[in-house]
Amino acid sequence: MSKIESYNFSGKKAIVRVDFNVPFNEKFEITDDTRIKAALPTLKKILSDGGSVIVMSHLGRPKGKANPDFSMKHVQGRLAELLGTEVLFAKDSVGPDAKEKAAALQPGQVLMLENLRFHLEEEGKPKLAEDASEQEKKAAKAEMKEKQQTFSKELASMADVYVNDAFGTAHRAHASTAVIADFFDSDKKMFGFLIEQELQSLDKVLKSPDRPFTAIMGGAKVSTKITIIENLLDKVNNLILGGGMTYTFIKARGGQIGDSICEDEYLELARKIEKMAKEKGVNLYLPVDVVAADAFDNNANTRIVAVDQIPDGWQGLDAGPETIKIYQDVIENSKTILWNGPVGVFEMDTFAKGSRAVADAIAAGTKKGAFSLIGGGDSVACINKFGLADEVSYISTAGGALLEYLEGKELPGIKAIRG
Ligand code: AMP
Fold first, then answer.
1. pLDDT value of position 56
2. Could you identify the atom of ligand 1 that is nearest to the CA of residue 346?
3. Which atom of ligand 1 is nearest to the CA of 317?
4. Is the pLDDT of residue 397 over 80?
5. What is the pLDDT averaged over residues 200-225?
6. Considering the domain 209-406 in this protein, what is its CATH number?
7. Whose C-alpha lies nearest to ligand 1, atom 17?
8. Ligand 1 atom nearest to 243, measured from its CA
9. What are the backbone dihedrals phi and psi of residue 110, each rounded to the nearest 5 degrees, phi first?
10. Is 221 left (phi over 0), alpha (psi -120 to 50) or beta?
């Protein structure tokens, strides 16, 4: 594989997979263009080298059918504005119009393809009748796999080089994120700057962390984070668990959790995780006190109680003051910090103090020289809500792909290029 920073795109046509799946208001005005801005360094590098760009993305879930509501045309103008150059448009992602326009591209020009997901081949999932037999399902899947190959080859045939800069979809084995890479020699495929930066930051944390390494895992449920927690137990020195998952652990220890959120089917697993942490020498921190409320409401009555003595009719919704002190001390004395998931119901101001304290401690640790990585939608929302985005080392906005990477899974979009 090649490296984008050292590759010379002069005279080359590059097909670039970006994630322009941006949100709109009802007038089809883009309400957040972060994802378009994030792809600019890659696109500008290709253009300033004297190359041309064929840009491709999905937008929404059009389910394999052309649908003007999901047209990339809604994104074309904003990209042109941000790039400061004209953006040509192909009315389909493959077919004669795209082919002709791609063939005519001159150095410095940009062509945007129509939404890849107007074709079922992009995701590669066949439409199956509900009553389809196993045999029919198998045949439909095999047929779709072949069609996906053809679709990917057609995309590839328009360009000399393939660049993947869509980390958000790197956990999908789709035509444009993975299959297409097979049609390029290894020196003609590479990651864009955005994916490179994500991988560098993630690998710094997961593969060569400065120690002590502390991970803070929060969020509503333990069930969605189990694999990540298990994977992290082999890597971290300190594991701080907070938020809604706290109460499954406390109940598993025999504590009284009142009406707090709990997943009874995970009690055994919570015990197993505590045991594993001990065996691996990981310091596991759970809250010692919590802000309990008599309703899931910003205006509820609240009181500070020990985490294992929450009365019936009350539920734990945030970390308490003693807990916050412990969390802060551990976080501020770490050299590597990973945060995924709020430690309280941060959306309500009454229960945002714990998450605010975590965010503050991460900022303070970063100031003292730690490398901090914040990932997952809700912790990113937290950091933004508290205005601390500029005071941490790296914020990953990748969602599902990030979670799978933290779980230790190999992402198809990464493997397709790295091999
Ligand atoms: P997740 O998507 O799993 O990271 O969960 C994030 C959500 O967990 C946020 O919306 C928080 O409000 C919620 N959450 C955090 N702590 C608690 C708690 N103690 N009880 C209920 N929900 C919580």
1. 98
2. 12
3. 19
4. no
5. 94
6. 3.40.50.1260
7. 244
8. 16
9. -125, 130
10. beta
Pocket perturbation via mutation, ligand 1, pick of 263, 378, 379 by most ligand atoms within 8 A of CB = 378
Give the burial class of 411: count Cβ atoms within 10 A of its Cβ; 0-12 exposed, 13-18 middle, 19 or more buried. buried
Q: Give the tens place of pLDDT for each residue, 309-331.
A: 999 999 999 999 999 999 999 99
Contacts 24+ apart (CB under 8 A), 121-124: 121/147, 121/148, 121/150, 121/151, 121/152, 121/175, 122/58, 122/64, 122/93, 122/148, 122/151, 122/174, 122/175, 122/176, 123/64, 123/172, 123/174, 123/175, 124/148, 124/173, 124/174, 124/175, 124/179
pLDDT digits (tens, 9 = 90+) for 334-350: 999 999 999 999 999 99
Residues touching ligand 1 (Cβ under 6 Å) are 218-221, 224, 243-244, 261, 316-317, 341-342, 344-347, 376, 378
Record the tokens describing residue 260, joined without a space: 């707090």
Ligand 1 atom closest to 348 (CA): 12
Sheet holding 315-319, edge to edge: 302-306, 289-293, 315-319
Q: Which residue type, as a one-letter code, is found at position 261?
A: I
* Residue 319 dihedral angles phi and psi, to the nearest 5°: -70, 145
**Catalytic center residues:** 35, 221, 377, 400
Q: How far apart are the CA of 221 and the centre of ligand 1, in A?
A: 7
pLDDT of 377 over the 80 cut: no
* Ligand 1 centre distance from Cα of residue 219 (Å): 4
Provide CB contacts within 8 A for 347, sequence distance 6+: none
By alpha-carbon position, which residue is closest to atom 21 of ligand 1?
244
Domain boundaries defined on the chain = 13-196, 209-406
Ligand 1: residue of 229, 323, 345, 402 to mutate (most ligand atoms within 8 A of CB) is: 345
Give yes or no on whether 13-196 and 209-406 have one common fold: yes
Cis amide prior to 212 (ω within 30 degrees): yes
Q: What's the gap in Å between 345 CA and the centre of ligand 1?
A: 5
Q: Which CATH class is domain 13-196?
A: alpha beta
What is the average pLDDT value for the chain, to the nearest integer?
96
Give the pLDDT confidence of 154-187 residue by residue, as tens digits: 999 999 999 999 998 999 999 999 999 999 999 9
Residue 277 near residue 230 (C-beta atoms within 8 A): no
**CB under 8 Å, gap of 24 or more: what pairs does 65-70 form?**
65/118, 66/92, 66/114, 66/115, 66/118, 67/118, 70/115, 70/117, 70/118
